[in-house]
Amino acid sequence: MISLLKRWFDGDVGYSFRTSPVAIAAAVVGFFCVFCAIFAPWLAPHNPYDLSTLELSDARLPPAWMADGSTKYLLGTDEQGRDIVSTLMYGARISLVVGIASVILSMIVGVTLGLIAGFRGGWIDAFLMRLCDVMLSFPAILIALLIAGVGRALFPDAHNTVAFGVLILAIALTKWVDYARTVRGSTLVERNKEYVQAARVTGVSPLRIMRKHVLPNVLGPVFVISTIQVATAIITEATLSFLGVGVPPTSPSLGTLISNGNQFLYSGEWWMTVFPGITLVLIALSVNLLGDWLRDALNPRLR
């Protein structure tokens, strides 16, 4: 593992990363957010969802540097007396899980369908591409909102696991088209190359050709798209949660925190919505910047 990391660090991609201050800064910010989210139960100063530890007398306290603020709560508290720092850690945890899981699911579906469409061609290719055109004709947020709303209506008392599954599915079904169209275009180029023709002549099955020969050569753009779409998926999840059809209220994400804090924004308790908003922006911006760097690093024309 160490030798693999050293080889990557000494290669072209590693050199591109070392010489890009923007990529390094984005990686540091992203790593910090992910680290705090993963280890929230151990790093958070309070457990915001343990009702026995909440003090209603500490509700709506401003940040520590403001008048009436308390050093016990660095960024203040919300309407229930929960520590904002702790809720940000737990909220980012949920947003990252939903965003990454939805991207993985959409990547699996999109890469599979794009690979089949590009390699097989014919009516399969035509059908899948027309399906992509239909999906692209609708705004992604409306499709996700429709699926999440229908899922919430069909399972009003569902367990949190089912609710999370519906939300992940709703986001994934709006993202697979980008993978399918990209992989299909790359596969159309790869399937006519000599190594694919040689594999066909030697009697290798089409499924094995697609899996062992074509797929590894079309994954470069997929990694770039998936990196950028993590940020998009997190923002989509926050939007759905803000509208009330996202994660369950008992497991609030950054979108839910922003929605709850928005009710107190005009009464002067700005920290309830501003700090979750800043956290969301930092996560999305760092992931987008890393995606832009990865796109340039993997483009041989820019080396």
UniProtKB/TrEMBL annotation:
Q: Topologically, how does it sit relative to the membrane?
A: Multi-pass membrane protein
Cell membrane as UniProt keyword: yes
Its transmembrane ranges are 21-44, 94-119, 131-155, 161-177, 218-243, 270-294
User: Coiled coil: which residue ranges?
Assistant: none
One Pfam family matching this protein = OppC_N
- Where does the ABC transmembrane type-1 domain lie? 92-291
Primary location group: membrane
What is the top-level taxon of the source organism?
A: Bacteria
Family the entry assigns? Belongs to the binding-protein-dependent transport system permease family.
Q: Report the protein name in the record.
A: ABC transporter permease
